[in-house]
Specification:
By secondary structure, the chain is mainly α. The chain contains one helix and no strands.
């Protein structure tokens, strides 16, 4: 096998290996982006729940005059 063929074969191997690694990296990045989006959604939902609970507590405390400083 001529030396240039051997070099070309090695370069093809390196190219294929780099492409496979890039594909795996893209997949992992996509998964991380989806997870981050889900976390943002959950945080927004938690914030809405906390606000709702705060309003409910206010409605309970107001008629009972339980509020500090009010």
């Amino acid at each position: 096998m001529p030396e240039t063929d051997l070099v070309l074969e090695q370069l093809r191997y390196i190219r294929d290996d780099l492409k496979a690694r890039a594909d795996r990296t893209d997949l992992r990045l996509t998964n991380m982006e989806q997870t981050l989006g889900q976390l943002y959604t959950m945080a927004g939902s938690d914030r809405a729940t906390a606000n709702s609970l705060g309003r409910r507590v206010d409605r309970i405390e107001r008629p009972l005059e339980l509020r500090d400083g009010a």
